[in-house]
Every structure is written in structure tokens, then in C-alpha cells.
Design goal:
single chain, 578 residues, Immunoglobulin-like, 6-stranded mixed β-sheet, 4-stranded antiparallel β-sheet
Length: 578
């Protein structure tokens, strides 16, 4: 008889718990070892090669109290011994973490004051957070008055960045409070440590977003004023203004790059001397990239004459254009330039002229590469006396000029519109509902070529004035609408037509305790306020005035105006937060 010795099979040592290769803990962790293919005499549990527990019989379960272990990774293995042979499990990593997660950054930041209504809300943590602790009901985005905003949340794959996406644009103006976790349900890291009070913060969503800071060409007490603004070929605003440099006033221009204001050339003044003040800037821009800048300028220290000048931007400099006939003549005043151009580059300009006796409107045309301006006859009717205050706009091949004049038959001043400087639009002047003298008229054409006019009416010697609007209705002017219902002593209208065809106006008005900038839009024949009144200061001695409005990209209104900034006026630009 032969005795056959059969060798014992190798022991298989593995893990019943934890099942994952990595386990996070801030206290105790349950461990359970599984041994197959036989019975060992001894099973040891090792943490970083140090035996922390030993069994001589199953079950091989142990709850490890990690309070004595240092924070960080610990390699856990099980070792079963039978006879002189030891069998070891694959390692498990236990990560001991007793440090609470921290918020490393927020966007928008705590206390941020210029947050877009479409800004995503993001939080970056110091370590991964537990996805199971991110319950929708534990993420609160609320306004200061307690309204809850619906958001969806997205946790990055590394667990360290949480993105909250509002289902609707944030309300403006508003103060938004974000809370991560509640009293009973905390956000935790993978070890169970709770996020503290820093999971709550607030930020402000204003009605208007600033495009840069206060704009001034010079430091110190150098008042910047009379800002005008147009939409550049790229949809971004271009501005021009007059500013005193300590000796004389010059014209300056700048364009918004999307992040900062870039000056276009240096100060502009066509005449030498310390008191040849350059004022009344006028801009023209179009989608072809044409950029024209006109202004008027005192011809000498006695200020009895004024001339007008036009420059064209090209090759990163302002290029001179020919002088106008009569420019520089003593006691001959050219003022209030208004300029436009055709897609082929033909420039048209309107000027108010005072010859020492009466006012009139002159218009000139300059063809590309021409050496001289060509006068355009301006056919104002003979019964309209002292026409002035003209502004011009263009649609297609037509130009429209609005102006005011004294009408003998009405015994008052009123507004008229000329088409191509020759034909009155409408059989009668624009009705002035109060019978007061109209002024500061501005004109733009809508997408169908119908001109729209906004103006101010005030009785002679009175500070009470209102803003009115009318539109050409095909055969007559629509009944004027009073727009300035929110304020008194209204001045300085500016008009734009939205990409949606809706007219929008900005103006300066007084509403206690100070003068601010108001904006209104017409929809379905009704005028409603846009945003909140604009002002950068609260003092009654810093009035906001002389606004200019354009429609930027995505049909968003942009407003520029002048207001005190420290010791002198500066230019401020805001974009509607929508």
C-alpha cells in the first residue's frame, strides 16, 4: 500500500470590507477580512506594516479607531499564517482626514457688486466633496427678500468644483445669497467633515454693468463733458468728448475693446492758441468701419467766431478733411455739427450757422478723395425763421434732418423734418403739445426707414420741461407721447432704435434728491422704464447729465454720460444687465 500526500491549497486572503480600494474616514472604519481554501492559525491586520489587530478564529472583523493615526494615506493589509507560510491580501488604502473642507474661491466672489444676470455661480473647494451630500434641497440661491431661485448643480469629475446654473437669468437689481447645506444637512468631504459657515455668501446684481471706470483724458481737475457715443463696426461702443487740459478744451475719442477703453489718437484741436476751445463733438460709425469725428471750435480768445472741423480715423490716426467754406471768419459761428455717411463713403454734415444777424442751417457733402466740400441747398420754408438745432440721420439713400424754427403763423417755435435737405416731411410741423418751445431734438430712423424724433419742451424762462417722442406714420406724425413721467426739469435727450425695432431714449431729469439719467423703451406704443436711474454718486452737487445711448450687441442698451468724479466731471459708461 502506497501513502500519497496531497499538498494543502494556498490560502486566499481578501476583503469583505471595505470593498473599494480607497476609503475616507475621520474616525472609525469597519474592516472585515475573508480567508478561503482553509483555516489559518492566525490572521493579522496591519496598518503601514504595524500590526493593529490579530485573530485566531473567524469572524475576522475589526473597527479601527483612527484617532491615533496621522492624517493622510495608510496602507492596510491582512496576513494569514498557516504553519510556516504567510499569505497576504492586496492592500487597501484608508485615507484619514479630520480637516473640514474649505472654500478656496467663489465666483461671483463674496461682496461682488457688478455681477451679470447670466453669470454662473461656481465654488472651488480645497478637497473633493461627497456627491451624495449635494442634495438639491440643500443648495439655496435666494434674493434678499426671500425669493428662491431655481438652479441645477454640476459637480466636476474631480469633486472640487461645484457649478450652479440658474434656470432663469438672475433678477436685476438684486442681492443674491447662496447657501451650501442646511442646519441639518451639511456638505461634506469624502471623509464626512462638514463645510462650515463659509458655505454662505452674498453678491449684488445691479441693473447696469460698468464698462470700465471713470473716463478722463487727464488726471486732476480737468472736466470731461459733452460725451457722444456710437456703435462701432464690431458692435462695441465708441465715444468722444470735450475736456479741458488746464489751458484749452480738446476733443478726445476712445473705443471699448471688451475689457478696457482704448484711446483713439491724442487730443484733437484744429486751431492753435490757449482759448480755442473745441466742443460739441459728433460721431459717425457704420458696419464698414467708417469712423468720423466732427466738432466746433472757438476761433480766438474773444470767442466771437466758431469753426467746425471733421476728421476720419484711418491707419491708427485721425486724418484731416478739407475745411468748410467760411471757416475761421470773424464773428461767423459754425456750431452743432451732425454728420453721417453713405456705404460708398460720401460724407454729409449739417451745421448751425450764425452770421451775426440770424441763424440758418448749412449742409455740405464730401465725396471720397474730393479736395473740397460741396454745399447742399437746405430748403427751409421762408415762413420758418432762424432755423437751428439740427441733427441728421440716414436710412438707405435718404437723409433726415430735424430742426426747430420760429413759425410766424404759430407765433412760436416748432419742429420740422427735411428729407434730403429739400422736402418737408409732413404738411405741418411736428405738433408741440404744450405750446412751449421745443429744443434739443434728436432723430433716428427705424428698420423700415421711418424717422423717429425725441425732444424737450419747456416754456421760456421755466425750469419745468418734459421729453416727448413722435414717429412718422407714413403720411403724418404720430401724436406726441410724453415720456418723462418719472422726473422734472428734463433735459438732454438721446435716442436709439433697438434691433427689435423698439425706440429707446435716455435723458437727464431731476428726481429728489438729485439729477440722474433715466432710460425708457417703447413697446406696443407704451413707454416703460429700463433698469434703474443712473448715477455714480449720491450727492446733490454731482448731477448726472448729457447722456448718449446706443444699442450694443444682443440688443443691449449702453449709456454714457458725464458726472462728477472727485473734483471734476468724468465720463461714465454702463450697459444694461440683461
Amino acid at each position: 500500500m502506497t501513502l500519497q500526500i496531497v499538498p494543502l491549497a494556498n490560502l486566499l486572503v481578501g476583503w469583505a470590507a471595505p470593498t473599494n480600494s480607497k476609503t475616507y474616514t475621520n474616525g472609525r472604519v469597519a474592516l472585515e477580512v475573508r480567508v478561503e481554501n482553509g483555516q489559518p492559525e492566525r490572521v493579522e491586520l496591519l496598518a503601514d506594516s504595524t500590526v493593529i489587530h490579530e485573530w485566531t478564529a473567524p469572524p475576522y472583523t475589526y473597527e479601527w479607531d483612527t484617532s491615533g493615526a496621522g492624517e493622510g494615506d495608510h496602507q492596510i493589509t491582512a496576513r494569514a499564517t498557516r504553519g510556516k507560510t504567510a499569505f497576504t491580501s492586496l492592500p487597501r488604502t484608508v485615507i484619514v482626514d479630520r480637516t473640514a473642507p474649505q472654500v478656496e474661491s467663489r465666483s461671483p466672489g463674496a461682496g461682488a457688486t457688478n455681477v451679470s444676470v447670466r453669470a454662473p455661480i461656481e465654488v472651488a473647494f480645497s478637497e473633493p466633496v461627497n456627491p451624495s451630500s449635494l442634495e438639491p434641497q440643500d443648495i439655496q440661491v435666494m434674493t434678499a427678500d426671500g425669493a428662491t431661485l431655481q438652479v441645477t448643480h454640476e459637480l466636476a469629475t474631480d469633486g472640487r468644483t461645484l457649478r450652479l446654473v440658474p434656470k432663469q437669468p438672475l433678477p436685476a437689481p438684486s442681492v443674491i445669497r447662496v447657501t451650501l447645506g442646511t442646519v441639518n444637512d451639511h456638505f461634506t468631504d469624502l471623509a464626512g467633515n462638514s463645510l462650515g459657515a463659509e458655505g454662505t455668501w452674498e453678491f449684488t446684481v445691479p441693473a447696469w454693468l460698468p464698462l470700465g471706470g471713470a473716463i478722463s483724458a487727464y488726471p486732476g481737475n480737468t472736466p470731461a463733458e459733452q460725451v457722444v457715443m456710437k456703435r462701432g463696426a464690431n458692435g462695441l461702443p465708441v465715444i468722444a468728448w470735450s475736456e479741458f487740459d488746464g489751458t484749452t478744451k480738446n476733443i478726445h475719442a476712445a473705443r471699448w475693446t471688451g475689457s478696457t477703453w482704448e484711446m483713439l489718437g491724442g487730443p484733437l484741436s484744429a486751431l492753435p492758441g490757449p482759448e480755442t476751445h473745441a466742443t460739441q463733438p459728433a460721431l459717425y460709425t457704420d458696419v464698414t468701419g467708417t469712423l468720423l469725428l466732427a466738432w466746433s471750435e472757438d476761433t480766438g480768445p474773444e470767442k466771437k467766431g466758431r469753426s467746425a472741423f471733421v476728421r476720419k480715423w484711418g491707419n491708427n490716426t485721425w486724418q484731416s478733411l478739407p475745411d468748410f467754406p467760411g471757416a475761421g471768419a470773424f464773428e461767423y459761428a459754425m456750431s452743432s455739427p451732425s454728420v453721417t455717411a453713405t456705404p460708398t463713403g460720401v460724407i454729409t454734415i449739417n451745421l448751425d450757422i450764425y452770421d451775426g444777424v440770424s441763424f440758418r442751417i448749412e449742409a455740405y457733402r464730401l465725396a471720397p478723395n474730393s479736395a473740397a466740400w460741396t454745399a447742399i441747398p437746405v430748403n427751409t420754408p421762408a415762413n420758418q425763421l432762424n432755423p437751428n438745432g439740427s441733427t441728421i440721420t440716414r436710412f438707405g439713400d435718404d437723409t433726415f434732418t430735424v430742426y426747430n424754427a420760429y413759425f410766424d403763423i404759430l407765433n412760436q417755435r416748432a419742429l420740422s423734418v427735411l428729407v434730403n435737405h429739400s422736402q418737408l416731411l409732413g404738411a405741418s410741423p411736428i405738433n408741440t403739445p404744450t405750446g412751449k418751445g421745443p429744443g434739443s431734438a434728436v432723430i433716428e430712423a427705424d428698420g423700415n426707414g421711418a424717422p423717429c424724433v425725441a425732444w424737450i419742451e419747456a416754456a421760456s424762462g421755466s425750469t419745468e420741461s418734459d421729453l416727448y417722442f413722435t414717429q412718422w406714420a407714413g403720411s403724418s406724425w404720430s401724436p406726441p407721447q410724453r415720456v418723462s413721467t418719472q422726473a422734472s426739469a428734463n433735459t438732454d435727450p438721446s435716442l436709439a432704435i433697438g434691433d427689435d425695432g423698439h425706440p429707446i431714449v435716455a435723458w437727464s431729469g431731476f428726481a429728489a434728491p438729485k439729477r440722474t439719467i433715466f432710460v425708457a423703451r417703447r413697446v406696443d406704443l407704451d413707454w416703460t422704464g429700463v433698469g434703474t436711474p443712473l448715477s455714480v454718486t449720491t450727492g446733490i452737487d454731482s448731477p448726472a447729465k448729457k447722456p448718449a445711448i446706443i444699442i450694443g450687441t444682443d440688443n443691449i442698451p449702453i449709456i454714457a454720460w458725464q458726472e462728477l468724479d472727485g473734483s471734476s466731471d468724468a465720463i461714465h459708461v454702463r450697459q444694461l444687465n440683461q
